[in-house]
Amino acid sequence: MQVNNEGEHLAAKALGDYLIQNNGRVVTAESCTGGLIGGALTSVAGSSKWFDRGWITYTNTAKHEQLGVSKETLREFGAVSEPVARQMAVGALAMASEATLALSVTGIAGPGGGTPDKPVGLVWFGLARRTEDDVVVSSIHQVFPGNRQAVREATVNFALMHALQWIDQRI
């Protein structure tokens, strides 16, 4: 798998530059990407200044134990859902006291596992940002075409670009 294409590297560097300028640190909580987002971020020289840590929480048990995702939410909505992506991001931010931004992904990379309601290629993204008074959370989903490798690569690219847009626009 191509972990660090040119677009990922540029987005990761731009995110790092933003975090340095704003005294920020990022954490990741990944399921379907298995650490590829953290890998893309840490491929940037000097990323230890702005990348704190990452979690690979592939199972529901890991999502619950490591990030505090509610068992009830997992039962009701399933691992690939907006509420789980949001709870993963909030949980990662809560577990890393120096982090200001958390990025989470949960999806169905394929080739199997899809359903009519949740097709292969469906990925939910969660973002959580610590402010002086609160935590702001956002989520979005995408359905990416292609095989497992293509879905995972598209997920990494989208996650990095979306995080940049979100922090830049403060949405």
Could you please describe the fold and organization of this structure?
InterPro entries: CinA-like_C, CinA_C. Residues 12-163 form the CinA C-terminal domain. It holds the Pfam family CinA. This is CinA family protein. It comes from Orrella daihaiensis. By secondary structure, the chain is α/β, with parallel strands linked by helices. It has a single domain (6-169), classed as CinA-like (Maf protein, Alpha-Beta Complex), CATH 3.90.950. The protein has six helices and five strands, in the order αβαβαααβββα. The chain has helices spanning 6-21, 36-42, 60-67, 71-77, 82-95, 148-169, and strands at 26-30, 51-56, 101-107, 122-130, 135-143. Strands 2-1-3-4-5 form a five-stranded mixed β-sheet, sandwiched between helices. Helix 2 links the parallel strand 1 and strand 2 (51-56). The model has no long low-confidence stretch (mean pLDDT 93).
SSE diagram, text form:
Elements lengths: L5 H16 L4 E5 L5 H7 L8 E6 L3 H8 L3 H7 L4 H14 L5 E7 L14 E9 L4 E9 L4 H22 L2
Parallel strand pairs: 1-2, 1-3
Antiparallel strand pairs: 3-4, 4-5
Protein name: CinA family protein
InterPro entries: CinA-like_C, CinA_C
